[in-house]
Structures are given as structure tokens and as C-alpha cells.
Design a protein that fits this description.
The chain contains nine helices and ten strands. The chain has helices at 6-15, 69-72, 75-83, 104-113, 168-173, 204-219, 225-240, 248-260, 265-279, and strands at residues 20-24, 28-29, 86-89, 96-101, 118-121, 126-131, 137-141, 144-147, 153-154, 164-165. Strands 4, 5, 6, 7, 8 and 10 form a six-stranded mixed beta sheet that branches. A hairpin with a 4-residue loop joins strand 5 (118-121) and strand 6 (126-131). Helix 6 runs antiparallel to helix 7 and helix 6 (204-219) packs parallel to helix 8.
């Protein structure tokens, strides 16, 4: 039996509800057709409008991905498949999120910081795939990109493990830090109390391990310290902020780690306040 072609792979993905598209060598999409060049078609090339491309050609990167077999096998796509070097897919279009770990250090971080899920090996690292779509964002931390809505990822096979639901800690990675809150207090004046949620933690060890990983994440930040501190605070609060388990001692450990990296007490308090506001706590 002959090996499956790239088009065969694309049709298999489409049948599973995963919208594929062809990639050129270098893992890049095909360029816009003449009718769509220079935004002539009205908006799709700049990717500001989510949704599928309405051009019959293989245009607009992620927006060209489709599960329609008549489009995938159409004459307009035939040349692209003949020239293609790989198959990609639109994770957000399939209700998925890919955490793209670009090197061994990023993989090591994920194994301590993220819930286990379906994992696919890449040339230099791994793709961790979760069930659920979210905003895409590159360079959320060293060696880590988020690919979901309005993005594409290379198809590299079925992977291993069971796919988990998209956790809040991954969503938090793509949240941009808002402007510092005006008139924020200079220090935390009281421990965080519960906000009506039940406590999901089986033992105090779970909380202690989470705080320890958060402190380590801040301590190991080699760049973008401001953003790392905010995202770490956001991740801690998304997991532990509703049940009343966090105490002033826990928060002070996080603040101390941030200040050891050069953050001011004011910035720590602002970042904590902004994280609370972002999560509605």
C-alpha cells in the first residue's frame, strides 16, 4: 500500500473536524492569490476578522483552513498540494489549543507547571494539546507560544496521552498585563479570603507545591520580569484564589521572589491587584 499523501492526511483531519491547510517549505503558508493581494479582497489578509477565508484559493494562512473536502480537493488547491511540504491545521477551528514548547527547557517547565495532556513531539520540543480554544499569543515565556484562534500549527501525528481540558493556567499565559491600577495600595494589607468557591485541594501539599512552582518561575525569569510576575500571580489566583486557602504568608513569598528580581513593592501590589481584577475576584 502506498504511503498517504499530504492531501490524504488533510482529508483524514477534515473528516475528524480538524481544519487543515497546506504549508510550503519552511513551515510557512502559501501567499495570497492575485485577487486577494494587497488587501484587495477586503480584510482577510490582515487576519483581523476571525473565521474562514471565502476565497477559492489557498489564501490567508489560518483562515484558509477548512473541513470541506470539496474545497480541499478543488482545482484551485491542487497546485498548492503538489508544492506543499507539510500539512498544518487551525487549532481554534477544531476547539483546541496548542502549547508550542520550542526547546528542552520549555518542555521541562511545562512538565512542572502544566497539567498533563496529549503530547506530540516536534523537531526541537513538544506540542501540548488541550481541549478548548483561546486567544493565541507568541512568546508568552521563553520558548513557549500559544496557538489556538487565528493561528496554525503543523500536523505532526496523533501524539501520546489523553487530551485534557484547557486549564486556567494556560489561559493566563496569554493575558497581557493591564496598565498599573491607579491609587493602588503600596502593600497587601490582609490575606486573600474565600470568594464563595469550594476548596478543590485534597491536601496542603497541593497548595505548597503550587506556591513553590510559582516562586521558582519568578526566580528563574531571565527576561520580561514584569510580565512573568503578573502572569504568575494570575496563575496562582486562578487556581487558589477562590477558596480562601491563600494566606498572607503565601502572598509574601510571591512578593519576596518578585522583589528579589528587582520589582518594587508598588509593582508587586499593582500586579496582584490587576490579577484580581482580571479574574473578577
Amino acid at each position: 500500500m502506498s504511503a498517504p499523501t499530504l492531501l490524504d492526511t488533510a482529508l483524514t483531519l477534515a473528516a475528524r473536524g480538524i481544519p487543515p491547510l497546506p504549508l510550503r517549505a519552511g513551515k510557512v503558508p502559501f501567499g495570497n492569490c492575485p485577487a486577494c493581494a494587497d488587501n484587495a479582497c477586503g480584510g482577510r489578509p490582515n487576519m483581523k476578522t476571525p473565521g474562514p477565508c471565502h476565497c477559492p484559493g489557498v489564501c490567508h494562512a489560518w483562515a484558509a483552513a477548512t473541513t470541506d473536502p470539496t474545497v480541499l480537493t478543488s482545482p484551485a488547491w491542487a497546485t498548492a498540494w503538489r508544492r506543499a511540504a507539510a500539512v498544518a491545521y487551525h487549532p481554534g477551528g477544531a476547539g483546541l489549543t496548542v502549547v508550542d514548547l520550542d526547546d528542552a527547557a520549555a518542555v521541562a517547565w511545562a512538565r512542572t507547571a502544566l497539567p498533563a495532556t496529549l503530547t506530540v513531539e516536534t523537531t526541537r520540543g513538544e506540542h501540548w494539546i488541550y481541549r478548548g480554544a483561546m486567544t493565541s499569543r507568541n512568546a508568552v515565556r521563553p520558548g513557549v507560544d500559544i496557538k489556538s484562534r487565528m493561528a496554525y500549527a503543523r500536523w505532526l501525528g496523533q501524539g501520546a496521552g489523553a487530551m485534557a481540558a484547557l486549564p486556567d493556567v494556560v489561559r493566563a499565559l496569554a493575558v497581557k498585563e493591564p496598565s498599573p491600577a491607579r491609587n493602588a495600595p503600596q502593600s497587601l494589607t490582609a490575606p486573600l479570603r474565600g470568594h464563595g468557591g469550594g476548596c478543590p485541594h485534597r491536601t496542603p501539599t497541593y497548595l505548597e507545591r503550587g506556591i513553590g512552582m510559582a516562586v521558582q518561575r519568578i526566580t528563574e525569569a531571565s527576561s520580561a520580569v514584569h510580565a512573568t510576575v503578573f502572569r504568575t500571580f494570575l496563575a496562582v489566583l486562578s487556581t487558589h484564589g477562590r477558596c480562601g486557602c491563600l494566606t498572607e504568608t503565601h502572598v509574601n513569598r510571591l512578593f519576596s521572589a518578585a522583589q528579589a528580581k528587582g520589582e518594587s513593592p508598588r509593582h508587586c501590589t499593582d500586579a496582584w491587584s490587576n490579577a484580581l481584577t482580571t479574574l473578577g475576584l
